[in-house]
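Sharing in case it's useful to others searching the archive later.

Someone asked me privately for the predicted structure of ABC transporter permease, so I'm posting the question and my answer publicly. Question first, with the sequence:
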Amino acid sequence: MQNSVEVDYRKKTVIKQKSSTFEYLKKHYFLYLMLAPALILTLIFKYGPMYGAIIAFKDFSPIKGIMGSEWVGFYNFEKFLSSPNFTVIFMNTLKLSLFGLILGFPVPILLALMLNQVRRAGVKKNIQLLLYAPNFISVVVVVGMLFIFLSPTGPINQLFNLFTDEPIMFMSRPEYFRWIYILSDIWTGAGWASIIYVAALANVDPELHNAANLDGANLLQRIRHIDLPTIRPIMAIVFILAAGGIMSIGFEKAYLLQTTTNLPAAEIIPTYVYKIGLQSGDYAYSSAVGLFNSVINVIMLLTVNFIVKKLNEGEGLY
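And my answer, the predicted structure tokens:
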């Protein structure tokens, strides 16, 4: 008798939940209609192309098509993992991403904290304009500027010529590639990335700083105990997203910075996929390499999110 009562209660609870959900959707249907275009576009252009990932498991032939090509399982993945290029390409990608994250992540936060201390609105706007402007410069233009400034006859080498007789070959030596890529990335993107932190700091109640001043707190103490706790949740989310895309380096800039002599450090997974897939026409193998890269990104995203939630009082991406 008790079991039947429990079953009836559960059924009534489920029916009540379904009816409340239906009523909520009926009441707010207009919001879901506004969401529909973005959802449809995401399904078409993000999830739809995932069907093509199946060619990573096939001996793909454009003539036979995806379904007509022979199934080879994990052969393409094994081919990449056993390739002599695997270790070099994987480590180049990992080092470039990891160093970029370590060096680049704190910079927007520091810029936002410094901008927050500028009280004159006109000066603050001019500084923000200078910081945000590099983000709108084309990657091709940025690379062209790097080649000009760092060439043997460029202004940087002209400065070094005051202390040494031989120019430094920045663009052709592998040991300089990583620093050039990362530092130029910070220059172009740090100012724009600081916007989210500046917006968060704008919501800090000025009375908190006034009270801290009356209590004798100095600038660093106010930043530590007022500003940083305010932006900590945003820092966690941004860090998780950045770590989740740690293997997704921008292809364009790396490819444009490559020269024949710096390839030992400049060849990364995105450029390798481009060369193997589009230039050599080995679509199945290049798809396997790209899918391998995506799987690593997903694993990194889940791992970092788990660690951040443990360290950040349960606050993470999801």
